[in-house]
Amino acid sequence: MEHKTKIVTLIFLFLFSCVFFMHGQGEEYPISYQSQDLVPLWTVSNGNMPINNPEKLQLEPRVNRITYAFPAFNHPIETVSWEVTFQIQEKYGKNFRAGLGLAEMKLNSPKPAFEVGITEDNIIKVNPIGYSPKMTFRVPEKSEIKISIRKEEKVYRITVNNQGFSFVPIIHGQISLCPIIYTQSCSTIFKDMNLTCIKKEQKVTYKIAEPTPIKPTIEKTEEENITSLPRIRLEEINGKKVFVRGDKNEICVPRGFNHVVLEHRDSGWHALFNTNVYKPDEIENVLKQMAECGGNVIRIWAWGTQNEFGFLSDKPNPILNIEYMNNFIDFLRKATKYNIYVIPILDEYPKWGNFKSILTALHAQSENDDPHVTGYNRQFFWKSFIQAKAMAIQYFIQYIKDTDPTLLSTVLAWSLQNEVFVMNSEGPFSTLSAEIQLPNGTQGKVSTQEERQKVYDQIVVYWANELTKSVKSIDPDVLVTVGMWTSDSAGRKPTNGLLFDGKDARFPPRPSVLGGSECLLDFIDIHIYPWDNTSKVNRECHEYGLVKKPVIVGEYGVFQNVSIEQAKTMLIEFLQQAYELGYVGDLYWVWDLTAIPEQTYSAVTEGLANYVMHWDGWKKYFTR
């Protein structure tokens, strides 16, 4: 009962089941902002602001996605009037659009109430389209367009170039709409911004309901009598940290495979254990084949697609989907049977079922969730999202412990993320002017390359440390890791400052940061692919000599743009270089994704599983 009491106490602190009510009261007078006031406040989602000018800003979209910018107020506002002059600089596709509007802010993601701007053929329209005037309003190519939105008693009145254009009815109860600007498939300059708004006072009341304890429901099977696997831990032997098995310091080198089952088999996201996907007989056969070719570790997604079939419950009270959890327990028992250790990936963050309200409630009470942070980056920068993931991790591992504690030793390590990265197309890195509150309570800046890198290094260590603590609060003896690739995937140096360079918007962390002494992770997991179309492992990007923790190759593979014989050569060259760098294990990507043509060669193809497992060049690096 002690551990259950501990979990319930944590959930009280983190508001497991919350019903909250918000209402506001406007201040006595409106507040006005001009361009020079607003530009430093802007944050961007799905794009970036490559210039830093107090009088205007340039909004660049990410690929062809709709890109929003909005002022990072730390309180809700009611917009009274919103006026912008803008000009499209360059079009990147036929389906371009740009303009302004008003939006509700849901966890700092804009949900537009309406937008008004320029679209295909230089026509001005209001979205929803039903509010556009019936006549065509076309503007000259590359002309400046001035659009105003003004709140009246029952409508928002819209003018274009000082002419009456349209109106949008005010929906009853629709308050706290935030001003936005947007662009898609075009580069746009915005200037002469004028915002008048009323600050809203936010009051939040929480009603906490005690969660129902989750009791194991899985039926007994003959596999329950299988002998548990010895615990894997790290020990230093001959000056090198290696994995050892059990109490006899028997060196164990993790060698095996990643296994993936997608939601629709040939498409979708990871869903191996989802209740509409999991097939016990199929996974038994996979584990049997892996063991027969010499594999001793399998890396899988413990958290997959989050829907009614996923690991989270959408019922009124329980946090976990019991049927899903029982699938995972069945898998651990089968892995134990074949003497295969497991690295389960706790990917991304919980956002389904009860966690929709939990995230909102935790964010509402947080003092460290900076409004400059947007989109994907919130899971690393917002303390509320870190707390929510920590809670879900504890429940997940506790269920296994309650069901069959002997299965805990089948887990070689819990992986906190498949591949860690942040995006410079999301705030705070999508601008160059923000000073932000970090989740550890300190301040950070993103104006220079050095400042941006320092902020990233700080937050990724805080994130990893907090989640590592959550894992070890339930199972103190288990190892914790995280997956990542390196900066050479986009032809960058490790200390790149997340600057706008027109390449991949995703930026992995530095290996020396997650593999450094300040990080609580036990080891890190680096993924190696032919980024430059060769089998060269870039030592600078792997930060050879700077990483203090053990490293495994959590994924390695070769794409099918080379022959199978070339692929075999490159695979062994990858492994040879990795072990020369001191890496202590390797997991092939991927067991079987033959249904997806653009994937790497699957292990089941032309005997590749046996080929890589029979390579014994690693042995010379593990002599006593």
Description:
The structure is a single chain. The protein has 624 residues and is of the alpha+beta class. The protein folds into two domains: 27-201, Exo-inulinase, domain 1 (Jelly Rolls); 222-421 and 462-621, Alpha-Beta Barrel (TIM Barrel), CATH 3.20.20.80. 22% of the residues lie in helices and 28% in strands. The protein is built from eleven helices and 32 strands. Strand 4 (47-48) and strand 5 form a beta hairpin. The relative contact order is 0.11. Mean pLDDT is 92; it is low at 7-26 and 206-211.
For this entry, give a set of tags.
624 residues; alpha+beta; Jelly Rolls; TIM Barrel; 2 domains; eight-stranded antiparallel sheet; six-stranded antiparallel sheet; 11 helices; 22% helix; 28% strand; elongated
* Average pLDDT score: 92
What is the helix tally?
11
Shape: elongated
Largest sheet composition: 8 strands, antiparallel
Low-pLDDT runs of 5+ residues are 7-26, 206-211
Q: Tally of extended strands?
A: 32
Which CATH architecture of the largest domain? Alpha-Beta Barrel
Proportion of residues in extended strands? 25-35%
The end-to-end span amounts to 44 Å
Helix proportion of residues, in percent?
A: 10-25%
CATH superfamily of the largest domain: Glycosidases
The count of domains is 2
What's the helix and strand layout?
Blueprint: H1 2-14, E1 17-23, E2 31-34, H2 35-38, E3 42-45, E4 47-48, E5 56-61, E6 67-71, E7 77-91, E8 97-106, E9 109-119, E10 123-127, E11 145-151, E12 155-160, E13 163-169, E14 178-184, E15 186-199, E16 203-209, E17 232-237, E18 240-245, E19 250-251, E20 255-258, H3 280-292, E21 297-301, H4 322-337, E22 341-345, H5 355-365, H6 378-381, H7 383-403, E23 413-415, E24 422-423, E25 435-437, E26 443-445, H8 449-474, E27 479-481, E28 483-484, E29 506-507, H9 511-514, E30 524-528, E31 551-556, H10 564-580, E32 586-588, H11 608-613
Parallel strand pairs: 20-21, 20-32, 21-22, 23-27, 28-30, 30-31
Antiparallel strand pairs: 1-16, 2-15, 3-6, 4-5, 5-15, 6-14, 7-11, 7-15, 8-9, 8-14, 9-10, 11-12, 12-13, 17-18, 18-19, 24-29, 25-26
Helix pairs in contact: 1-7, 3-4, 5-7, 7-8
